[in-house]
Give the backbone structure.
Amino acid sequence: MRMRCLLKSEVTGRQAITPAQVATAWLLLPGVTAPIIGASKLPHLEDAVAALNVKLTSGDLRALEELYQPHPVLGI
C-alpha cells in the first residue's frame, strides 16, 4: 500500500505519468529482474509503451527502493 501511495504522489507528481508507467520503467532498469505480465487491455499496453520514455531520477529510485521488499522466487 505504501508503494502505491508513493507511486501516485512523489514519483508521478513530478512527471505527468501513471503509476503503471513508473512501475514498468523501474522494471526495465538494468539489474531489476521480475516478470512482466501480459497486457489484457489496450490502456495496459499503452502504459507499457509509454514507460519506455520515462526517466526516473536518482531520487525516484531511492524512494522506490526504500519501500521495496524482495520476495523469494516461487513456482520453479
User: Anything to note?
Assistant: Residues 2-67 form one domain. The two ends are 27 Å apart (CA to CA). The helical segments are 2-14, 19-27, 42-50, 58-67.
